[in-house]
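Thread: quick sanity check before group meeting

JM: Hey all, I'm pulling together slides for Thursday and realized we never actually wrote out the predicted structure for the chain we discussed last week. Dropping the sequence here so it's in one place. If anyone has concerns about the input, flag it before I start.
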Amino acid sequence: MAPLGYALTTKAGGRIRLTIDGNRMRGTRRTAADTTTRAVDQVIPRLGYIASASDLVPLAVGLKTGRVIVAPVWGPTMASAETRIFTIRGQESMDIEGTTWQAWRVEERRESDGVLLATWFLTDRSPYMVGGEGYLPNGQVQRYTEVALP
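JM (edit): ok, ran it. Output follows.
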């Protein structure tokens, strides 16, 4: 699950394009607040699973009620990976975008302070992550859904 590249374009005008080779990332970055594109050539001191796909970590290990998974998670805006704790709480029935799913509830917390970062609703078949909630530092909740592509 090691990323080979990362690309992000935001509505606000930010843009990141990186290639990742081992523990080195190279490319360009432009923030929405700065119109200057800056070169990136950085050694990553500690790698981890890519943060934007952290919901894949429990799927890679296996879904089982009560299972606790500890794994490093890293993203291009992070200086180094941080340890996350994934706790599989159990299954529940839920309606997501008009489809009823029997999904596994998984909590993702940052190890250093125990803050709940996300709750994922996962299945063992496509689209795997059928729903999720990301808890932002300002108290807002960002909701996610996925659908299977034909």
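AS: nice. Residues 49-145 form one domain. The chain has a mean pLDDT of 92.
JM: adding both to the slides.
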